[in-house]
Specification:
single chain, alpha/beta, TIM Barrel, eight-stranded parallel barrel, two-stranded antiparallel ribbon, 13 helices, 42% helix, 12% strand, globular, disordered C terminus
């Protein structure tokens, strides 16, 4: 396993981490989830990602049971939660001081831990002043209930405002952002966030590195039963894949499949290793649903050295889209 600092912080996270967004409860039961976490941990994974909204809290409950049963030393792993969607009531949503505190305490109970290593604002809240959110997160830090706080799917402007407010109030700004990042979704990581990496040392815990399964090749012919796009709550993904744009992307996936074959690796391994080539990526969150899939994804680390400048340039010719700054300006990171 490789380990990378979370931005400018001193915390070192495994380059590959494990998340429970869709899998826990929806695709994996308690025993299966525990087995997957154990395999990941034994391979060196030290970050496990979660959120209050995942399976309406059941995902955190399952992970908490697993952490209790596996009995790992608390100083050997990191765990996260995210706050924004906690229920239907007005006080159960958003980033108000009240909901941030209530959600944190609920996550601690479900995860069966005394503190959260990482705590994310799951989305920006236009109805709550960013100052209120910054102060609430810092208060939780002072109380020892969270160690690092960050954002998820915020804009560069919103994150910058949070940093400036924190500086003015002599408080801690966000240590990390959790954006979507993959071969088909690149604008924020490769363009918008560059000033944040350079000026503030922002860390990133990226999600959907396989574009919700689109970069696995499993949707080239059809949507298989049991796949994420076949789940009722992911009808939006099914429609996206079956759309003209989705089919066009699958043509690119077929081309990438051939690149993977020449490198003697799987397409998912190629896509994961590609994400890790970006030094601004602190960790790539995996969402594997089977032991075979998890082991294969973890082996993507062995592909990193094969992605030289020639291979990266070849990949660009297949995935170039309007949203790809790199296609216009050349490679944004060293090989």
């Amino acid at each position: 396993m490789l380990y990378r600092r979370l931005g400018k912080s001193g915390l070192k996270l495994s380059a590959l981490s494990y998340g429970s967004w869709v899998t826990f409860k929806n695709q994996l039961d308690q025993k299966q989830a525990e087995r997957m976490m154990s395999l990941a941990y034994d391979a060196g994974v030290n970050f496990f990602d979660n959120a209050e909204v995942y399976a309406n809290g059941e995902s955190e409950r399952i992970m908490g049971e697993a952490l209790q049963n596996l009995a790992w030393r608390r100083d050997s792993f990191t765990v996260s939660s995210k706050v924004f969607w906690g229920g239907d009531k007005p006080t159960q949503q958003g980033l108000s001081r009240k909901h941030i505190f209530d959600a944190c305490h609920a996550a601690l109970r479900r995860l069966k831990v005394d503190y959260l290593d990482l705590y994310f604002c799951h989305r920006p809240d236009p109805e709550t002043p960013i100052e209120e959110t910054v102060v609430a997160m810092n208060d939780l830090q002072r109380q020892g209930k969270i160690l690092y706080w960050g954002t998820s799917e915020w804009s560069a402007e919103e994150i910058t405002e949070a940093f400036l407010i924190a500086k003015e109030l002599r408080l801690q700004g966000p240590s990390m952002e959790q954006p979507e990042y993959n071969l088909f979704h690149r604008q924020k990581m490769e363009k918008d966030f560059l000033p944040l990496f350079e000026k503030f040392g922002l860390g990133t815990t990226i999600w959907s590195p396989l574009a919700s399964g689109q970069l696995t090749g499993k949707y080239l012919q059809e949507i298989p039963a049991g796949a994420r796009a076949s789940l009722p709550q992911f009808q939006w993904l099914r429609e996206k894949i079956l759309s003209p744009e989705g089919r066009a992307r699958q043509t690119k996936v077929a081309a990438l499949q051939k690149v993977a074959e020449t490198l003697e690796c799987s397409l998912p391994q190629l896509a994961l290793a590609w994400c890790l080539k970006n030094p601004a990526v602190s960790t790539v969150i995996l969402g594997a649903t089977s032991e075979t899939q998890l082991k294969q994804n973890l082996d993507s680390l062995a592909v990193l050295d094969r992605l030289n400048s020639k291979v990266l340039a070849q990949i660009e010719t297949f995935v170039e889209e309007p949203e790809s700054p790199k296609a216009q300006k050349g490679l944004l990171w060293p090989n």
